[in-house]
Design brief:
The complex is a heterotrimer of chains A (255), B (200) and C (92). Chain A is built from nine helices and no strands. Chain A is an all-alpha fold and 255 residues long. In chain A, helix 7 runs antiparallel to helix 8. The N and C termini of chain B lie far apart (51 Å). Classes of the chains: A mainly alpha (255), B mainly alpha (200), C mainly alpha (92). Chains in contact: A-B, B-C.
Chain lengths: 255, 200, 92
């Protein structure tokens, strides 16, 4: 891989940290939407919320939108690096790419919904704003399955790595699988309007959200390390003498 | 890997400390247990805010069914533990029989759960009937998903022992990982049994 | 293979303990047992359950022979979780 390729890969990896910051600032700092409001709130209350933090919400939604787009670049970086871990299973790369796209779309759609709710809050009937607010959070919570698939594909690729010096440490594969598991209860968000199963509840919102961003945060330095390690491997090949060239190329051939 | 080597892995107190499976497995296990712990905590926390609902819910639970489910999983865990011993010793057919026993127990657990769910539904207790039932279906459902995944994993382990008298160290560690996962599922159930069926 | 048989015995013994403690907690779970004072039963049940989980972790998961870090992690986990559960139960 050329130096330029590696630079691009590094930038894409950085977008992981960046998207976390954008999501965080967006919903926490500007929109002030965390902790998420209860689905039980009346339409009037919801409209009031949107009107009270109008600018903050709109700015926040825009930030999240940019963060959503970065799911694509970060996901592509992760897929590229995990492809090296499991080169004989390219489908895992494709699945991750597809999942990254859906994650990106998910991010864009949900903040568009929130933005739209804010756009016409007070001008249209309250029920419309109420439902748009519901849609915003259900988009966050309900499509857990595509994220599960993303994490399973990444985790599987990492764990299939047969090398002595794997691209990613094996525990990160297990961790990815754990994160995948955590998205499972997301769909329960449409079954309840309060408590543990609601879209602001522990199972559908808190656990997957915390774990997803933890996953992005944890994987980022590991991805940087994988990019760096690959650089050493290439340099090793270029600068070594004949005997170590044999072992290195044997290692690469076996990879 | 000779028999003595695999025996040494579980030798007496003078051998150096070692854990089964690989390090990553424990990351998963402790992580999963932490998530479950949050759910247990949320359940007990919620109890104070919904006393009436929780008392009613607890009253509707059958501790005998719960105990049966607990015993079923305990039998399956013993089977898995002994199966791993057999695999380490290279006694594959016996190991497979034990694994099938564990899977059968898992299936029985599934059936008992399904019967219980049906019973609850027919009494009008569904996912949204009250916070108690939301927790009940949510937590036992997630646990059941773990049981199903565990059963599949045990099946894969069983089939991986066919036509072999010895497993490579790497594969053995994966087998141990599946076993540890199964024991975790059993342990989580013990807490669920206490929280839903016993404690009021 | 004597050590192997010994190990099997230990495991079966642990299992028996688990079964017996399950029965014990089943008895304690009887609504009529402690009358109005369900709290006593609850704490006992949680304590026994903690022991049961520890038995599974220590013997079935072989954490007893694991490096200190892992043992400490599980002990910490069990301590925090069961203390919190009992505490939350009693105080709220």
């Amino acid at each position: 891989m050329s130096g330029m390729d590696r630079q691009i890969l590094k930038v894409c990896t950085l977008t992981g940290a960046l998207l976390s910051v954008l999501y965080g600032c967006g919903v926490l700092l500007f929109a002030r939407m965390i902790p998420v409001n209860s689905p039980l709130r009346s339409a009037t209350e919801v409209v009031g919320e949107y009107q009270a933090h109008e600018t903050g919400i709109r700015v926040g939604m825009a930030l999240v939108m940019f963060g959503g787009a970065m799911m694509l670049t970060w996901g592509a970086a992760l897929a590229t690096l995990t492809r090296r871990a499991a080169p004989r299973h390219p489908i895992l790369f494709h699945i991750q790419m597809a999942a990254a796209v859906t994650a990106g779309m998910n991010g864009v759609m949900l903040c568009l919904t929130g933005a739209l709710a804010s756009f016409r809050a007070g001008e249209v009937s309250e029920e419309i704003t109420l439902v748009l607010n519901d849609l915003f959070w259900l988009l966050w919570v309900f499509p857990g399955a595509t994220f599960e698939i993303w994490c399973i594909a990444a985790g599987t690729a990492i764990l299939l790595d047969g090398r002595d010096r794997p691209v990613f440490p094996r525990w990160s594969g297990y961790f990815s699988l754990l994160v995948a598991f955590s998205f499972l209860p997301g769909f329960l968000g449409i079954f309840a309007k309060e408590g543990v199963l609601a879209y602001n509840g522990l199972l559908p919102w808190w656990i997957p959200t915390v774990l997803f961003f933890l996953w992005v945060t944890v994987m980022d330095p590991l991805m940087h390390r994988a990019i760096r390690d690959e650089a050493w491997l290439v340099e090793d090949l270029v600068h070594s003498d004949a005997s170590s060239l044999d072992t290195s190329s044997a290692q690469r051939a076996g990879a | 890997m000779t028999i003595t080597d695999s025996e040494n892995r579980r030798a007496g107190p003078d051998s150096s400390p070692h854990a089964p499976a690989e390090a990553g497995t424990w990351v998963f296990i402790l992580g999963d247990l932490t998530i479950f712990a949050l759910m247990f905590g949320a359940f007990i926390w919620s109890r104070a805010d919904h006393e009436v609902d929780f008392l009613a819910g607890h009253h509707a639970m059958s501790r005998t069914s719960g105990a049966l489910m607990t015993l079923t999983l305990l039998v399956s865990s013993l089977a898995v533990v002994l199966a791993v011993e057999r695999i380490r010793a290279g006694v594959m057919r016996s190991a497979r029989r034990l694994l099938f026993l564990a899977i059968a127990c898992g299936s029985l657990f599934g059936v008992l759960k399904a019967v219980e769910y049906h019973d609850k539904f027919s009494h009008g207790h569904d996912l949204v009937a009250s916070q108690f039932w939301a927790f009940y279906f949510g937590l036992t459902g997630i646990h059941l998903a773990h049981v199903l995944i565990g059963m599949i994993a045990l099946g894969v382990v069983a089939s991986s022992t066919r036509g072999r008298s010895r497993l490579a160290p790497r594969r053995l560690r994966l087998v141990e990982g599946v076993a540890v996962f199964w024991h975790m599922v059993d342990a989580v159930w013990i807490v669920l049994f206490a929280l839903f069926y016993l404690v009021r | 293979m004597n050590t192997a048989m010994q190990r099997d015995r230990v495991l079966e013994g642990v299992w028996l303990l688990l079964v017996l403690s399950t029965v014990a907690t089943w008895i304690l779970g009887d609504e009529r047992l402690f009358g109005g004072d369900a709290a006593v039963a609850a704490v006992l049940i949680l304590a026994i359950s903690a022991v049961k989980v520890w038995l599974i972790v220590a013997y079935f998961m072989e954490v007893r022979q694991a490096p200190l870090v892992l043992r400490a992690a599980f002990l910490a986990y069990l301590g925090v979780v069961f203390a919190s559960l009992a505490g939350l139960y009693l105080l709220r």
